[in-house]
Amino acid sequence: MQKLIRKQAHFIEVILQNIDFKIFKTEFFFTKFLPAIFKHYKKFSTNFGISKTLKINSMKTTYIRLSIAGALLLGIYSCKKGEVSATDLEAYATTDSAAVVASDSISSVATMKVKDKQFIKTADVNMEVKDVYKATISIEKSVQELGGFVTQSNLHSNVISEDTYNTSNENAVLVKKYQTENRMQLRVPTDKLSELLTLINDKKLFLNSRSINAEDVTANIKYSALEAQRNKKTTDNIAQLKVNKDKVTLSDENMREGNDQQLESMNMTDQLKYSTIDIYIKEPKIRVAEIGITNTKSIDDKYKFAFVYSAKSAFVEGYYLIQRIIVGLITVWPILLIGAVIVYFLRKRKPAKKQTTTEV
């Protein structure tokens, strides 16, 4: 009897080894698996060396045994299913996390496509990067690789402080504290907008702001087409008029309006084909530059005052001052002459008055 039990246990073990628990279903167990085992029990017993002379007391006892075996199988299946579910959940969590990262780096606005709709897409990015110069070179290279071009790039440094420190009579050090920033404007094919934004996002230390706009210009395009038709019809109507001054004026105005319409259509087509991205990047940290320079203060002190040279220059300047005074007096000689005449007559009248007073 014990030998029979061992063979039955081995029979169950072989069954368990051949079950794929990843695809094993509870419904399959009760509707297909268990009845099949019950139906072919005698056949399996023969294959495993169980004596054919062994008779089963009752079908009920056999079914109970198979039910117990099935319960064991179901318990093991449940454990296996728990392991598979945990693995699947972990994989799903990883996938979901990746999706969150992707959605964080690419906005749906950048990739949005709607049937029978036309959008002009623009973006504005403000962020801080580790190195503005390297980030600028990398972004410009990425734009060229994606078939776009750079229309503006203003890289400059804002000097926070500037101090000079003398290290010797001849040398000094100029210390500058500054922050570097850059304002860029890029044009990239509209279907590459999301890819470029992802590349730009990889350069950030901190994202201050990012706005992506999709302007629906479907109605504008239809209106432009209607205006083109109207302009063509007006041209045909003007052509039927008699040649006169008014016809020339109307033709000229209509042609100008048609040219403006074509220019507007070309600009809109260009904006639909290429998206515009404005980028402002800066470094959060303050950089320090130490520049070796000449000690100009010592040179100034060296030549600041020379007594002999200054005295000689003073005598020379005094001599030239006398010359300038004489020349100035010569320049105003008419005034001096008039003044001398006035003084002469005044002095001549005074003695005459004194003589008259004495006679009285």
Tell me what you see in this structure:
With 360 residues, the protein is α+β, with helices and mostly antiparallel strands. The chain folds into two domains: 2-100, no CATH class; 113-282, no CATH class. 61% of the residues lie in helices and 22% in strands. The chain has helices spanning 2-17, 26-39, 41-47, 59-105, 108-111, 132-145, 193-201, 218-239, 245-273, 296-302, 307-331, 333-359, and strands spanning 119-129, 149-166, 171-189, 204-216, 274-282, 287-294. Strands 1, 2, 3, 4, 5 and 6 form a six-stranded mixed beta sheet that branches. A hairpin with a 4-residue loop joins strand 2 and strand 3 (171-189). It is flat. It starts with a helix and ends with a helix. Residues 47-60 and 76-105 have low confidence and may be disordered. Keywords: Membrane, Transmembrane, Transmembrane helix. The chain crosses the membrane at residues 325-346. This is DUF4349 domain-containing protein. Residues 118-221 form the DUF4349 domain.
Describe, in short, the structure shown.
Keywords: Membrane, Transmembrane, Transmembrane helix. This protein is an alpha+beta fold.
